[in-house]
Structure formats: structure tokens, C-alpha cells
Amino acid sequence: MSMVRANGVDLHVQEVAPIGVQRGTVVLVHGMTSDSMASWFLTLVHPLAETGMRVLLYDLRGHGRSARPATGYRLDDFVDDLEALLAHWAVAEPVYVFGNSFGGTVAFTYAARHPDRVAGIVTIESAPPTATWFARMARRLDRAGETLADAEAVANSRPLIARRVRDVSALLAETDIGEQLPASDLPDPVALTAITCPVLCLYGADSAVRELVDETARLVPQSRHVIVPSQKHTLLIKAPDQVRAEVLPWLATRVH
Known about the structure:
Blueprint: E1 2-6, E2 9-16, E3 24-29, H1 38-41, H2 45-50, E4 53-58, H3 75-88, E5 95-100, H4 102-113, E6 118-124, H5 131-155, H6 159-174, H7 177-180, E7 199-204, H8 213-219, E8 223-228, H9 235-238, H10 240-252
Parallel strand pairs: 3-4, 3-5, 5-6, 6-7, 7-8
Antiparallel strand pairs: 1-2, 2-4
Helix pairs in contact: 3-4, 5-6
């Protein structure tokens, strides 16, 4: 297991070398609570490496095998972590940042801070850092806490689900993410106009997140939006073939 001390927190990181000549660098950022870097390993890590991309990924603070500090869960903390890791990895060229759910919000925020350091953004079931999106995340955190007891009963007979439930339970019980993340200071929407790189956004047709398409398109007008039929918020895991069919050709036209 590879651990890196970044921004004052021990973060679990992985790197997958490109196959053949390196054509670029991509960093993969997962979602909050029940997600981890594992969702990327199951879907996009190896296909990206096969295209010649250097693939970097990590568990967010409080998630997976990364440390779980009691505090430090505002949006800026997560973006500072990404910035520190890219410095650790000595990424010199503009990087592609892929984000699932909250990971996409981290990607947008990092790009708003450093537009010259981002070559492109891919988000899955995500949105820029807006009040609308953060209100949704606050409700989701509340629901996660309310449903843990029922989930534990189901999980007793399913070890993988049991571990996920325990991780989410510890995150909510041992940290202040439920208070800090919804209270994050959000960037001025004008700051998002600094994002000029290509942007691809994927949504499940049956997910409420698709309701944010118009707002995202207004804030990031160069973004391309794809709605995948019959999918929900679990789009990345439940429809990896469709995700790869959109992402890999999009990327191929931009790296050489």
C-alpha cells in the first residue's frame, strides 16, 4: 500500500504506468462517503493506461485506506489535497482530471483555481461547485446517516457491503464532514469562466443529477453533456462499457 503525506494528511495513492509511449497524465477523483478509488480500478484505469496515459488516483481524506482526520472536510481541503498530490507526483504538463460525483466538483474547482494546469475534465454524475449541488449533497449526507441502521441489517450477510457500511458509518460518526462539507465556501460563479479546457459530462437518465445539466452548461459553456439511458447515480459502476465508449474516443481526439 502506497501512502503519501500531502496537505497534512496521509493519503492512499496509486499510479499505473502508461503502456507504450506516454501521451498524457490523468488523475482520477472518486466520490464521497461510500466511494473509493476502487470504482476507477474496476472501470477506467487499465483502459486509460492502454491508451498511453499515466494514471494517478487516490482515496480522498476520510475514505478508503486514507487517513480519517476528525476535521478538514470543506471543499477547499479536498482541492488542496489534489494540488499537493500533483506536486508530489511532479506533474509538469497540464493534466486531465476525471471526477465521479463529488470528485467532479473537486475537478471543476481545481480547474477554476489553475486553468493553465488542466488539459481537460471528465465528470460522471457531477456538477460544478454551486449552491444547488451542495444542497443536494447535504441532503444525501443526512440520508446516509439515517439509513445506516437499516443498511447494517442487510450487510450482515454480505461482507463487501458490510465493510462499506462500516466505512461510511465511521466517516459520519468520527468526523465533521456532515457539517463542514455543506458549509464550504463556494467559488464565485465568475471564477468558473476561467475554465477554458474541454469538458465532458456524463449523467444517468434516471438520476436527479441530470437536472443540473442546464446550470452546468451555463457556467461552463464549452462542456459537452451525454445522458446514458436507464442509468442512475451509479452510472460509473453499473454501465462501465457505456462510460468507456464516451470517454475514450473523447480523450483520443485530444492527446497525441
